[in-house]
């Protein structure tokens, strides 16, 4: 078996490496030095060897794997009787028993050079392409396919044709360039290209061995003029070289991305190892739990992306660092907010009037104004964050009226006392960069309410103080503005 493997490799000029050219350069006097002369009687019937995906060109030797019983019988008889065979490519590789309609009309007359029975019980046939032919008809299909053929002569340019010489050199250069940048062919194949001096053989050699599409190879085989075939081959080579360069560029970028991801993963593992050594590796469970909660939150894609980005920062921070607790508190606050949770309003005016009368005696003008406000809210239906200002001396029921409004609407009730507040960070919240940073009272109120539409009571807002730490009254005014509530990123 080893001897046969070695014999096949020596015969077809390949090595154990993949993607080598299938060509015999030193068999029976070397590569053909020109197109042979073959005469075929139009009435003669020649055996036809259908191939599924391979297109054979004149002047080239190729190994062909034969599997059909009829094809095996054909090649063995052709070798024994020294018969010529017509090698024709099928239109569809899936057809098992092709007919005339299943074959391309143009093929190549070939000679069976040798048959090799391989160790894996397959049969490989070395075929020498000789002349292009046109298949006229199929006359027999048993024991193998027979048909009538017509020889097609190539139009050969003169040796003094400089344009053709330049074309051939351009095809050779592009092929060598393609081999260098592509991984579909062995790099040693460029050596074979450089040492083929016959233009006819070189062009057909490239057409046979380069991994073009089957339909493109069939188009090349149909062209009678060798010069026109060279032009068309040059177009295909230019396209394939460009595609190969794009493919290499994409692979390089993808490899760089993968390398960066691997580097980040390696560094993450190193950080975790160091943290474990320092006794700080117990936060993994907490981080994974936060990831799970984030997946269930009704967030926009932008919010989710921002949260995951901040979570990555938390993973990279050592638990003993002051920044860790700030970052953890920030993310836990985000998860605690009532994203997308709303209570259903009860806009029954009779119920609202009943609740107001039950909780408060008198105050008829105030109750009437509140009921008017609720009526407008019910009719319009889309009022955003309506604001009611209640003022008066202490103890007249301003705060309790707000509580009654929340009860009548069946909304959550949140009271925020602003008396004596002198730091605007109490309203807005602290910057995340500060140690011990906390959210503002508005955000804390939303978390306590568990709803995104509670009734907020900003109590004793007139007793807010201003000093060097800021003006809480201005911050409160900003919060109360409808546009600020919708756009303020600090909240």
TrEMBL record:
<protein>
    <submittedName>
        <fullName>Lon protease 1</fullName>
        <ecNumber>3.4.21.53</ecNumber>
    </submittedName>
</protein>
<dbReference type="InterPro" id="IPR015947">
    <property type="entry name" value="PUA-like_sf"/>
</dbReference>
<dbReference type="GO" id="GO:0005524">
    <property type="term" value="F:ATP binding"/>
</dbReference>
<dbReference type="InterPro" id="IPR003111">
    <property type="entry name" value="Lon_prtase_N"/>
</dbReference>
<dbReference type="InterPro" id="IPR003593">
    <property type="entry name" value="AAA+_ATPase"/>
</dbReference>
<dbReference type="GO" id="GO:0016887">
    <property type="term" value="F:ATP hydrolysis activity"/>
</dbReference>
<keyword id="KW-0378">Hydrolase</keyword>
<dbReference type="GO" id="GO:0006508">
    <property type="term" value="P:proteolysis"/>
</dbReference>
<dbReference type="InterPro" id="IPR027417">
    <property type="entry name" value="P-loop_NTPase"/>
</dbReference>
<dbReference type="InterPro" id="IPR046336">
    <property type="entry name" value="Lon_prtase_N_sf"/>
</dbReference>
<dbReference type="GO" id="GO:0030163">
    <property type="term" value="P:protein catabolic process"/>
</dbReference>
<dbReference type="Pfam" id="PF00004">
    <property type="entry name" value="AAA"/>
</dbReference>
<keyword id="KW-0645">Protease</keyword>
<dbReference type="InterPro" id="IPR003959">
    <property type="entry name" value="ATPase_AAA_core"/>
</dbReference>
<feature type="domain" description="Lon N-terminal">
    <location>
        <begin position="46"/>
        <end position="241"/>
    </location>
</feature>
<dbReference type="GO" id="GO:0004252">
    <property type="term" value="F:serine-type endopeptidase activity"/>
</dbReference>
<dbReference type="Pfam" id="PF02190">
    <property type="entry name" value="LON_substr_bdg"/>
</dbReference>
<dbReference type="GO" id="GO:0004176">
    <property type="term" value="F:ATP-dependent peptidase activity"/>
</dbReference>
<dbReference type="InterPro" id="IPR027065">
    <property type="entry name" value="Lon_Prtase"/>
</dbReference>
